[in-house]
Amino acid sequence: MPSVKRDQPKRPSPGARDLPEGDKRGTEQSPIVVKVLPSAKTQDEPAGNKAETLDRPSADWWMVRLTAAIAVIGLIQTIVFGIQAYMLRQTISKMDEIAQSQTQDVQASIAEATPRR
After folding, report:
1. Cα atoms in the Cβ-side hemisphere of radius 13 Å centred on 55
2. Percentage of the chain lying above the pLDDT 70 cut
3. pTM score over 0.70
C-alpha cells in the first residue's frame, strides 16, 4: 500500500512568532494598514477621457433643455388646473341657484295641490 503524504502544518511568518496567538494584526497576512495604489493610465485612457469631456457639455445642454421643458409643462398644468377650479366653482354656484329655484317651484306646486280648509 502506498503511503499518503500529509501536508506539513503552516509555519507562521517570522513577525507573527512574536505576537500572541489571538492577535495576528500587523503581519504580512493581516496588515494594519492597506496601501491602495492608483492604477497606471494607459495610452488609450486620455483619448477616451477627452471624448467624454467633449460629449459632456452636449449632455448638460440637453439636461437644461429637458428641465426647462418640464418646468413649462408644469406651469401649463397649473394654469389648466386653475381654470378647471374656476369653472367648477361656477358650475357649483349655478347648480345652487337651480336647486333654490326648484325648491321654490316644488313648494308652490305643493301649495296649489293641497286643498285649503
Report:
1. 6
2. 62
3. no
